[in-house]
Amino acid sequence: MITRFLFLLSCLPALAWGQAALNLSLAESEALWRAHSRELALSRTAVEGAEADVQTAGQRPNPFVSLGLLSISPSSGIGAGRWKDKKMDNVLRVDQVIERGDKRALRVRGAESRLEAARQDLDDTARQQLAGLRRAYYGLLLAQEKARLAQESAQLQARGLEVAERRLKAGDIAPVEVSRLAVDKARADNDARQAQSELEQARYVLAYLIGREREAASLQASDPWPAVQASAEEANLAARPDLEAARRRVAAAEADRDLARALRHRDVSVGMQVERNNQNAPTNSVGFGVSVPLFLWHEHEGEIRRADADYNAARLQLAQLEAQVGGQLGQLGSALRAARDRLQRLEQGLLADAERVAAAAELAYAKGAMNLMDLLDARRTLRQVRIEAATARAEYAMARADWQLAAEYGKEQ
After folding, report:
1. Residue 29: how many CA atoms within 13 Å on its side-chain side?
2. Is 232 a residue whose pLDDT tops 60?
3. Which range has the worst mean pLDDT, 79-93, 261-275, 330-344, 350-364?
4. Which end of the chain is flanked by fewer CB atoms within 10 Å, N or C?
5. Residue 65, strand partner residues
6. Residues whose CB falls within 8 Å of the CB of residue 376, separated by 6 or more in sequence, listed in order
7. Phi-psi region of 380 (alpha: psi -120 to 50; beta: other; left: phi over 0)
8. What DSSP designation does 215 have?
9. CB 115 within 8 A of CB 55
10. Contact 219, 206 (CB under 8 A)
């Protein structure tokens, strides 16, 4: 028994460490995200593949080597003796395709444009994922605030019910008031449980983004809410990476269109052969050959039309994206100003007024100067205003983060 007790005692520090909260600042969360983001890793592999495509595009066609055995008689066979004395024609040939129309340079130009587009896609993925990370962080901070407020409200309702039960025993209040307080306590307990569930969900959202799923239950956002600022940094959405990627794809489609048109330039295949024929003179000889395709059935009209369509589609997609992005700057600024104004109104007036009214109601009810319904109404109003203030802080933090991200990724690289 003593041994078991000592063993359990030695495990307590480890158990306490395993359940300890993992406090993370926003900067620490971003560092973990950069190191463990699965989406960024996938985008990096796309860049590596595009780099390989550039290497492939710059390669010349490989030559072909062939060995032919000719002039073999079915009746007399190839004869006896060594290989060089056999009665057959040995032909060793090497062929090399020579591309015309600057095709290799056009392939390289298109591949390089797609490589730059892949790099811009990586930056755009980072932009979108970083926006999601910051929203998840502030979402966790809001969930923590709501859980704390719900817990405080549940504790307040529990203390009020205990006081009411004592007053009921003393004959100071009617049983119906105790019943009403019990109902409000049950509601507060349900709200606290719901807030705890939302907190757990917010932790798992952030844990996935930073690669800490096993530690999700212990995640804790430690940063305070960002202070309200009067102005914001200038943002230029025209330099956003997704727009730049679309421009690079237009350049790649243009190179592909030119490459399709270059198919009208016939590629030439040049060959050289060495021949050994024991049946004819001279026995050893060399030869040269040139082959050119004949455009009898088509002149690559389908490939050219397809490349033209892809080029027009890339231009239309760029124009569509520019139109979508054009209004986002105004939307971000409007959302930031609205969130800032709402938060200032709540913190500078409404929240303080609700707290004063609730404190006065508690005091008045304790002295018998206020009925129960007015007290419960003051408590609900205070809780609602506090939750509204916490939500306003989260909305301002998210809107400010979106604006800062637009300014950060909108700068010319």
Report:
1. 29
2. no
3. 79-93
4. N
5. 94
6. 180, 181, 184
7. alpha
8. G
9. no
10. yes
Report yes or no: 138 and 394 within 8 Å, Cβ to Cβ.
yes
Query: What number is the average pLDDT over the span 333-358?
Result: 85
Q: Is 220 within 8 Å of 391 (Cβ atoms)?
A: no
DSSP of 39-89: HHHHHHHHHHHHHHHHHHHTPPPPPEEEEEEE--BTTTBT-SS-GGGSSSE
Tell me the pLDDT tens digit for each residue of 14-43. 443 345 678 999 999 999 999 999 999 999
C-alpha distances out from residue 297 to 293, 301, 393, Å: 11, 10, 70
Question: 410: which 2 tokens?
Answer: 């909108």
Tokens 């592999």, residue located = 45
Q: Scanning the structure block, which residue is given the tokens 């969130």?
A: 339
Model pLDDT, residue 131: 92
In the numeric block, the tokens 């592909």 are attached to 256
Cα separation of 375 and 383, whole Å? Answer: 12
Distances (CA, A) of 411 to 205, 234, 404: 29, 10, 11
Alpha-carbon gap, residue 112 to 119, rounded angstroms:
11
Looking up tokens 């009898």, which residue turns up?
Answer: 296
Instruction: Sheet containing 89-98: give its strands across.
Output: 64-70, 89-98, 268-277, 284-291
pTM for the model: 0.79
Q: How far apart are CA 113 and CA 236, in angstroms?
A: 23
Structure tokens at 373: 């319904």
- Give the DSSP letter string of 255-286: HHHHHHHGGGSPPEEEEEEEEEETTSSSSEEE
* End-to-end Cα distance, the chain: 69
Using DSSP's 3-state secondary structure scheme, residue 153 falls into: helix
Residue 367 in this model has a pLDDT that exceeds 70: yes
CA distance 343 to 232: 16
